[in-house]
Amino acid sequence: MAIGNEGSRSGGRWPPRCVRSLPAGRQTLGFQSRQQEASALLDRPKARVAPGSETSSKPHGTLLPMAEPIACGDQDPVAGFLSWCRRVGLELSPKVSERVNTVAGEGAGAGLRGCAGTLTPVSPSERGALQSQSGWVPLLLALLHELQAPASHWRPYFALWPELGHLKHPMFWPEEERRRLLQGTGVPEAVEKDLDSIRSEYHSIVLPFMEAHPDLFSLRVHSLELYLQLVALVMAYSFQEPLEEEEDEKEPNSPVMVPAADILNHLANHNANLEYSADCLRMVATQPIPKGHEIFNTYGQMANWQLIHMYGFVEPYPDNTDDTADIQMVIVREAALQGTKTEAERLLLYERWDFLCKLEMVGEEGAFVIGREEVLTEEELTTTLKVLCMPAEEFREFKDQDGGGDDKREEGSLTVTNIPKLKASWRQLLRNSILLTLQTYATDLKTDKDVLSNKEVYAKLSWREQQALQVRYGQKMILHQLLELTN
């Protein structure tokens, strides 16, 4: 799983990147997938992303430990999938069985290494033409072909996928509804960036390749609409191989579909984790799991806005202990500008901001990320408050030393419990920034709380309205907690 503090909205671009996974636990569950070669449309993409939850109204299987085996008819897609797993050498633990209609109502998966088996390998020149900023194009082209191939090796796997026409990601919501329900959360902006990138790659890379191979692709069938649906599916169900720190920024970390790994739903309070080794992937328990209880994987430390954006579901408040709220960096600049009284002060403020940009502490699309117990972008926010609030002469000296010369660092100063200990000027700027952030939402905290606390009213909301409400409420609770500490 990719490592980083990609909790901010600026990190929510397509392809999104998950945050870190947790240490593996004791016993192997669910599956052991041997990494196998597959001659494909592209050369074996490396991989890991994460399974989705609640992305379809179609019920799928979810792994449960020590449960009784289910009876499967010949036409049962689950039975067909399990038979396929045995044929390809994917090992399923006898301690685990499948059950439908649990928790998020979905599951399904069982992939190996690469995603095709019927296509002739492309030429080196064509492989180069498939390179993209996302690194997703080869896998998506393979899926476009295999999904429509009646004799596809992967058909038993595809049979367990959610219906592509019923994916619940916000990218498939009407634009007006998406903006209205998720205003202020960062999701509409992330979706728009995704859609721009996806459409660009489809028209500039995917479409020319399909036009050059009419024997493999039908432009009528393999449309932009289908491509968008497959992007959402890969976003929710794929995996990316863990990278070493020095490899993290070199090239796109291409995703791979890993059948069986993507059966498990996600919880912040999970009880299983995917473990990587040189020749296989294992799902292992991180704690004892009682018989009949659902097994939950982790997709990383994901805030609710990331879960709805990438997977089409959220964890209801207060279950998601990894939830965060963002304060856009430009909002902090706006709050600081509101405190200036003269043109000279405004010019100096912009000089301070430009210096912070030079230090790579801020950016026009960046955000400070606030968790329930700590500020996840502590260095960035600490440095920003410090530079924007220090006296003019002190700033000149600080700038002359390129931000060095001050060995004193406020380590731990932006944990939630230590916010009241900040300098008064820092707290005031932070407070003003929070107030401006709260104004970006269409509703206030009390309005959302009243709906959440009234079960009858909440039950009458549509599914999208309920999910969006959970996202907004969780963020506002974090912001209001921080606001109280700045008094």
UniProtKB/TrEMBL annotation:
A GO term, aspect molecular function: NF-kappaB binding
Stretches the record annotates as Disordered: 26-62
PROSITE patterns: SET
SET domain mapped to chain residues: 94-300
Domain of life according to the entry: Eukaryota
Pfam family for this entry, one: SET
GO annotation (BP), single: stem cell differentiation
Start-end of Polar residues biased regions: 29-38
Top enzyme class: transferase
Keyword Ligase on entry: no
UniProt-annotated location(s): Nucleus
Keyword terms: Methyltransferase, Nucleus, S-adenosyl-L-methionine, Transferase
Primary localization: nucleus
Similarity annotation: Belongs to the class V-like SAM-binding methyltransferase superfamily. Histone-lysine methyltransferase family. SETD6 subfamily.
Protein name: N-lysine methyltransferase SETD6
Organism for this UniProt entry: Callithrix jacchus (White-tufted-ear marmoset)
